[in-house]
Design a protein that fits this description.
319 residues; mainly alpha; metal-binding; zinc
Length: 319
């Protein structure tokens, strides 16, 4: 994952023609957890993108041997709540890393499928390309989902009758030959475990389907940190203030993008971040109201680099 993140960042930098300082600043601003602690401890030593990349790869990437890759490939199976599409692409990625043939890749992928029927169908057909296997997977999965919606699981009558007979035999009083006058208390069986529980949708809390096929609107995400809807705690914007405070007193070239801004000839300076890749100048609504700016209501989708939900702007103003 660390190597993939570096490659993704370099690809983005190449498309946008970023210099090395921009790449270093983008990488620094997206570090979290242990990676951020590692960088803060060595930021005086890491002054260029080349040094950052070299030390980051030494610390967070390790070379995996062929035998270890093969072991992981054989152990990779479809999880209980994992879709066939997610499993298929991940398993084929592991096969391509070992440069296996298409037939070997297909066989290993089928060995890890959770559905035995799906495995039998795929192995009985001839596929020349990877997308042909995926088409059969998609078709089979649609049929299974359709049948699950139309036919609910029922209890086998023969199994129920067998349970009733066993229950009667267990609860019947037992009398030993040595003490026929003292009846033995009946032994009650444990609660019968349900063999075929119906699937339950976590989106609408109804039975008979899963959340992926739920016809009801999706429940909005809720942040456990600020209790607001629309995002999770991982992407909560309330922690961006901590990042600004950590970098507030730095004066070297890593903070050349933080400047003092004076609005409407005010003598009070506020901190501004220079983003050369942004098409808009963004200001908080509270600051605009504080300095008496006229706000024209307009919804604008603001997107940033990385897997972060977009933010909806509330209007335009002039300063």
């Amino acid at each position: 994952h660390a190597q993939g993140w570096i490659s993704s960042l370099e690809t983005t930098a190449l498309l946008n023609q970023w210099p090395d300082l921009y790449k270093l600043e983008a990488a620094r601003s997206h570090l979290t957890g242990a990676a951020r602690s590692w960088y803060l401890a060595r930021q005086s030593e890491i002054e260029t993108w080349a040094k950052f990349k070299e030390q980051f790869e030494q610390m967070f990437t390790t070379a995996i041997s062929v035998s270890e890759q093969w072991k992981r490939l054989q152990a990779r199976t479809q999880q209980r709540n994992e879709t066939v599409y997610a499993y298929f692409h991940d398993k084929m990625r592991m096969c391509r890393q070992l440069k296996l043939s298409k037939s070997e890749s297909k066989k290993l992928m089928c060995m890890g499928l959770h559905s035995k029927d799906m495995c039998n169908v795929l192995m009985s057909r001839t596929h020349n390309e990877e997308y042909e296997v995926l088409q059969d997977l998609r078709e089979f999965d649609e049929v299974i989902q359709g049948r699950n919606e139309r036919f609910k699981p029922t209890t086998n009558s023969k199994s129920t009758l067998s349970k009733e007979i066993n229950f009667k035999n267990i609860t019947k009083p037992m009398i030993s030959p040595s003490s026929q006058t003292q009846p033995i208390k009946p032994v009650m069986p444990a609660a019968f475990k349900r063999e075929n529980p119906e699937v339950k949708c976590y989106n609408c809390q109804l039975l008979g389907h899963i959340a992926r096929d739920c016809p009801q609107p999706r429940r909005p995400l809720k942040c456990s940190k600020c209790k607001a809807e629309g995002h999770t705690a991982k992407y909560c914007t309330t922690r961006s203030l901590d990042i600004a405070l950590v970098e507030q007193n730095q004066t070297d070239n890593r903070t050349v993008y933080i400047k003092d801004v004076y609005l409407n000839n005010s003598t009070e300076a506020i901190k501004g971040l220079v983003d050369t890749g942004s098409t808009l100048t963004i200001i908080r609504r509270s600051l605009a109201e504080r300095y008496g700016m006229d706000i024209t209501p307009r919804k604008i989708q603001l997107r940033v680099y990385g897997n972060v939900p977009c933010v909806i702007g509330s209007g335009d103003t002039e300063a």
